[in-house]
Amino acid sequence: MQPTREEQRELLKKLAPGTPLRQALDRIVQFGRGALIVLAPREEAERLIAAGFELNAPFTPEALAELAKMDRAVVLDPELRTILYANAHLVPDPKIPSRETGTRHRVAEQVAKELFCPVIAVSEERRRVTLYFGDWRYELPDPQALLERVGQALSILERYRRDLREMLRDLGRLELERRVLPIHVASVLHRFLSLFRLEEEINRMLLELGELGDLSARHLSALIHGVREEFLLFLRDYARDPHRSPEELGEALLSLEDKEIGNFEKLLSILGLDELDPDQPLAARGYRILSKIPRLPPTVVERLVEEGGSIDQIARLSRRQLTRIKGIAETRARAILYGLARVREGYTFSLEGF
Questions:
Q1: How far, in Å, are 165, 186, 195, 227, 278 from residue 264 at the CA level?
Q2: What is the pLDDT of residues 303-330, one digit of tens each?
Q3: CB atoms within 10 A of CB 283
Q4: Domain 144-271, what fold?
């Protein structure tokens, strides 16, 4: 059984550079020692302890590093407040399969599977730290190498964002002419989801980096600013399921497996567009484009969508017709027409961070 993503995140957070547990592990590696550390409640760990010293001492990085000099395991409570046992001889079920060859790592994997708890093994020879949690195995990377990977991922994310912006600009022109096909919607959705998936991966790496990743975290925040809001507006424009909100649809899309993101039929089915003729143009409601027009309140956007039904129909309204809609006077009508003309010409205006 695999731990959830949230459980993985919580464990990696405890092991980020600068945390007490990471300080202890760094000391152990620096001194060229091995270690076996179990994070489990007392009653769970005692099921597998055949011998050892019961300590019940406060956890500190220095104490853990010293106790790791002993050959056997150290048991900590999951909250990392207390060192429960030192030099503990663990006897997991030998029938539990393990792909590890070394004794320390094999025991670590078997204990992690039997108790479904985090177990940390430090290799004396390779000077590497490996995490086990149920069936999940993860080797902690070198912080400097991880920083380089984050930098590369941020460069890719920047390209994804630029590509998405261009796709949305082109989509806006098609929307005003009602020439959007299901393939266009699926392509934009795929780019959104690819961007969010990469953001999730970068966040996981930043979690491992702790305070070392602060600068990269600010860069990520700037790159992702406004994208999620744009995603929800896009869903409002095209979703055909009246029983699910844009937020619910967004959650359904974000929970897809990696291989499903590239399945355009699957993406369209979540929006209720999978049974449409692939050559039949779609009408966008217009929330995304109208939200970009300066000083146009959401209540007025709603009335415009109710009145016109779709952005191409709204774009056909004259200035006089627009002023008949509650909340739209002469100045606002001119601003709407000017904004729609800019979209038609291919400009991305007032994108509010995106």
A1: 20, 6, 16, 21, 11
A2: 999 999 999 999 999 999 999 999 999 9
A3: 16
A4: Ferritin (1.20.1260)
Considering the chain, tell me which residue range(s) the CATH 3.40.1700.10 domain(s) occupy. 5-140
Q: How far apart are CA 123 and CA 216, in angstroms?
A: 30
Q: Which class for 200: exposed (0-12), middle (13-18), buried (19 or more C-beta within 10 A)? A: exposed
CA 327-328-330 angle, to 5 degrees, is: 145
Domain(s) labelled CATH 1.10.150.20 in the chain stretch across: 287-344
- What whole-number distance in Å separates Cα of residue 45 and Cα of residue 153? 39
Query: Rounded to the nearest 5°, which phi and psi values hold at 53?
Result: -105, 125
Q: How far apart are CA 154 and CA 341, in angstroms?
A: 34
Over the chain (354 residues), the average pLDDT of each successive run of 10 is 91 92 94 94 94 94 93 94 96 94 94 96 91 95 92 98 95 95 97 97 92 94 96 96 91 94 95 90 95 92 94 94 93 92 72 48
- Burial bucket for residue 123 (CB in 10 Å: 0-12, 13-18, 19+): middle
58 three-class SS: strand
Share of the chain above pLDDT 70, in %: 98
Could you say which architecture CATH assigns to the domain 287-344? Orthogonal Bundle (1.10)
pTM: 0.82
Rounded to 10 degrees, what is the CA torsion of 161, 165, 170, 172? 130
